[in-house]
Structures are given as C-alpha cells and as structure tokens.
Amino acid sequence: xxxxxxxxxxxxxxxxxxxxxxxxxxxxSQTGGGGTSTCSGQPTRFSAPSESTCxxxxxxxxxxxxxxxxxxxxxxxxxxxxxxxxxKRVIISNGIPDHDVTLQNPLAPCQxxxxxxxxxxxxVAASQTEIPIRGMVAMALNGVPAYGPQESDDxxxxxxxxxxxxxxxxxxxxxxxxxxxxxxPQMGQETVAPTxxxxxxxDGFPLYGPLADADVGQLDACNGMVNSDGNYVYHVxxxxxxxxxxxxxxxxxxxxxxxxxxGCYSGSVxxxxxxxxSSYILDNDxxxxxxxxxxSDDDDDDGDGNDEPTRTGVNIIVMQPxxxxxxxxxxxxxxxxxxxxxxxxxxxSGLPHLHRLRTEGAQLLQAYAASSTCGTSxxxxxxxxxxxxxxxxxSGSNLPLEVTIPTTKLMGDDCATQNLAAEFQANGYxxxx
Length: 433
Prior knowledge:
The structure is a single chain. The protein is of the alpha+beta class. It has helices spanning 2-22, 352-360, 374-383, 413-416, 420-426, and strands at residues 51-54, 64-65, 78-83, 88-93, 101-102, 110-112, 114-119, 124-129, 136-140, 145-147, 173-174, 180-181, 197-201, 206-208, 224-226, 232-235, 265-267, 273-276, 287-288. The strands form 6 sheets. The protein has a 6-stranded mixed beta sheet, with no helix packed on it. A 5-stranded antiparallel beta sheet has the order 18-7-4-3-19, with no helix packed on it. Strand 15 and strand 16 (232-235) form a beta hairpin. 31% of the residues are buried.
C-alpha cells in the first residue's frame, strides 16, 4: 500500500513538473504571429459600429472600381468637427472610400456608422500605450479607419512573405465584418509626402506621410517627433522602412516592431471612443472643420483665459474666366462673333450661386495677366511662374522662346510639386480641377 502511494505521488509530481515546464507567461511569449493578441498585456481596442447599405460588389474579386462611377450612388461622406468644451475632435463618416479601388477579395464593403471621438488638443502621456494588433488605430481624413499591421490569421497585412492580398495596397480592402479599412501606411492616398496630413491617431495626434530614409531616425518608437513648430506629430513609415522579418512584439513592451502606421500611442486613449453615428448627438459648441489642419498651439490667443481650439481652413475655388475685362458688367456673355444672331441667355433665375461666390468671395480687381493668351495665363496662375519658365518651354538653347498655348504644359516639377494644388495638399486640403 505504501509503495502504491509513493508511486502515485511520483506520478502527480511528474505531471506538475511537466505543466510547469510547458507553461510560459502568455504576454512575453507572444512575440509574433500564432495567436498574438497583446504584447504588453494592456491592449486597447475600438469596436466598429453598426452598418447599413452595402456596395453591390459581392464576389467580384479582381475587378477595378472607379470612384464615383462604380460606387452605385453610395459615396463617401465624412465630417470632422472640433468640440472645444470637451476637448474633442469628432469624425463622423460612412466609411466608404473616396478613391478608385481594386477588389482583392469577394467581400463587398458596407456603409459603417462611424462617430469617433478623440482629444482635440492631445498631450504626450507619461507612459506609452500599446496599439491594438488588429482593429482601428487611426482615422484617415476620408473617414476610413486605419488598422493595425496584422490580419485575423496573424499574417503581416502589409509586407513580407505572408502579406495579405489587398491589405497591402494604399487603397485598402474589405474585412470579414464588411468594414473597408487600411493597413498600408499611405492610408488611402496614392501619393504622399512628409507634409501630407493623412489623418489622426486614436490618441488625437495628427498622422503625416513618411519621412525620407535619412530622417526616419528622428522618430521615436511610436513614430512620433516634435516638429519645427514645436508640435508633437506622428509620421507613418514607408513599407521599406520597417523590417517584416523581426517579431511583431518588442518583448512585453507596448512598443511594437511592425510600426508602419504607429508603433504605440504616445498620448492617452482613455478619452477616445467609437459611437454609432445613427444615434450620436454632437455637443452644441461643435464646429465643422471642412479642412482639418492641425495646430497644437495651446496659447490663449484672444485673452479670454482659455486655450484656443485647432484652427479651421476655408474652402477655396479659383475661377479665371476668359476674355472678361474687369470693368465688364456682370451678365449674360456677349454673342459669339461667328453666330451674331444667336443669343446666349441666362436662366430666368440668373446665376445665383455664381453671383454669391462673386459677391461673398474675394475679387482680385488688380490682378494682371502674365501672358497675352488664356492657356499661358492659367499656367501662371497655377504655378506662380512666367509661362516662359515652364519646363515644357525649356529648349536648352539661347534662342528666344516661342511661348504658345500648345507648348506651355504642366510637366515635371511644375506638375508634381511646384503648383497651387501641391501647396494646398501639403496643408491638408483636397484638391480638384
């Protein structure tokens, strides 16, 4: 009997030792894929709200969709508000992208009732917070969420041998919950620069495009830095600036190694939340921000004892009519010389919207044409340069230039960076012509 008890004790002791040998701390062991849900043990996740109408794209994998023509009338809707009394920035959107896409899976995205609150004037916290491995980490300017770098199967969604088709592209893809989202650090913008405002992290700090390789060392582990204006901002990292072969987790630190969009939160997300826009009620003091331009200046600019909220931009439309002398009366255009008896009549109601733009907007009454023809003058308006200095007119010789409409084109730097649209985009505007 004594021998049987001893043998049972030995068996129990062996089982206990085996369990102890197999048990590893679940936080420190989760250094990559294979079921990782957190690195630091303190993940912060934001769940998606309800959905409504879906785009008619089910089972159309591989098809290209042009915005807005192929979106079936379900177009992007986004509004960004500043609510100073509660120090909130509120982004309300339907989660539909505002750009062309290629469908990489058979799922059709649905309108998602996003109402996202985050700090309007964020502050760097005493300690960092881990971003969710999967799920929303930021909101793009077009109201589409940006997710963490892993897919549901723990694969790298952006880069590496296991990158997920569709997830790695700038235009995003549909998830299993039918929510369109981005993993790619360009966050829905086909071309980006270090000055491109992409959106806002869930801790409220703005997200800008990637720095040059020579400057990326200025970023901290969260992808943040203090810019030349003294403001803390994030910069995403270009895909090649992140090593996909290292473990996702940096031990049990809140800093993660796959820091394409963020490596961690430098600010607090305790006051950030996701609500359902179908039942969300804005505060009375919320002001629509049509062109969100971040300004973390917290000075009391007007002397009322309160820090001033982030500034807003204004909508800008540049109209440059042809053959219109500044002293001409505002009315119907003159008859065409080739059709002198064919009148060009205005509607009975006139042109009320154009009239309002003219009377309530800025009229430049002392602007002078830089060239004698319409096309070359418009080149000057767009670039701020004489048409003779256009790259397309540079013959490389010392002979006098023949500056004409056909020879004056937007090309090279004139088209890419040195024009009004590029300057507006660098300051958070969306541009069109």
